[in-house]
């Protein structure tokens, strides 16, 4: 059982409603993805399928993977077989996907769970068509540093207890490490975004809006093959 299996149902409710997801991460990452009508998109670390749902709405064909069986069940209950679901741990090779099979890869708030992301990024590079794109979001390293203190340049796994009581294990690392891992896997950065909350958040969650307007929370990238 993975960490997310233990609170899958509650996580789904949170991800469907939280301003961090709905008014901050998703608008930024979907904006980076652009037009995907008719494209085959791999939703890597799909969680309860909230991005997959949006990808379908935008006319894409979707393959969605996650290591949490319970989150996949929730996603499947919501979207049925309109998406090709597969339980997969990103630390394992994507051997069931042929070279250059997918047009785009979306990897939202997942990479900081991987202790060694380069092999996973190399696999994503392999299954991506030559002029395809990867859009990816992760914790902003300045936000980790602000929260955890200590050494900004530290590269280590740490445990975090959310206000919900859920214990998560993440990797913190400086921006240079994040970007050099993209390069090692064969990618170049096409665009980098330090998202700002969308204006609607000001009325619905003023405190979070105020904080995210002043302090980075997540950072998003669009990558292409070098
Ligand atoms: C913060 S959630 C994000 C879910 C989804 N991308 C979204 O934004 O709604 C992180 C997800 O990463 C998944 N995950 C973490 N480590 C993984 C791994 N090694 N392989 C596949 N999925 C993983 C978790 O199960 C969880 O669904």
Question: Please, could you describe this protein's structure?
Answer:
The longest helix has 15 residues, at 19-33. This protein has one domain (3-170, 200-225): Vaccinia Virus protein VP39 (Rossmann fold), CATH 3.40.50.150. It has helices spanning 3-6, 8-17, 19-33, 50-57, 69-79, 117-127, 141-148, 175-184, 201-204, 206-214; strands at residues 40-44, 61-66, 83-87, 102-108, 128-139, 156-161, 167-172, 187-193, 218-225. The protein is 40% helix and 27% strand. The chain has 226 residues and is α/β, with parallel strands linked by helices. 40% of the residues are buried. S-adenosylmethionine is lined by residues 2, 4, 15, 45-47, 50-51, 66-68, 71, 89-91, 108-110, 113-114.
List the helices and strands and how they pair.
Blueprint: H1 3-6, H2 8-17, H3 19-33, E1 40-44, H4 50-57, E2 61-66, H5 69-79, E3 83-87, E4 102-108, H6 117-127, E5 128-139, H7 141-148, E6 156-161, E7 167-172, H8 175-184, E8 187-193, H9 201-204, H10 206-214, E9 218-225
Parallel strand pairs: 1-2, 1-4, 2-3, 4-5
Antiparallel strand pairs: 5-9, 6-7, 8-9
In short:
The protein has 226 residues and is an alpha/beta fold. Helix content is 40%, strand content 27%.
Strand order, biggest sheet? 3-2-1-4-5-9-8
What overall form do the CA principal axes indicate?
A: globular
**Beta strands, count:** 9
Described by strand count, sense and barrel closure, the largest sheet is: 7 strands, mixed
Encode the helix/strand succession as letters.
HHHEHEHEEHEHEEHEHHE
CATH class: Alpha Beta
Q: Give the domain tally.
A: 1
- Roughly how much helix do the residues carry, as a percent range? 25-40%
Annotation field: number of helices: 10
Global structural class: alpha/beta
* Small molecules in complex: S-adenosylmethionine
CATH fold category name: Rossmann fold
- The gyration radius over C-alpha positions equals 17 Å
**Percentage of residues in strands:** 25-35%
- Average pLDDT works out at 97
Distance between the termini: 37 Å
In the CATH hierarchy, the architecture is 3-Layer(aba) Sandwich
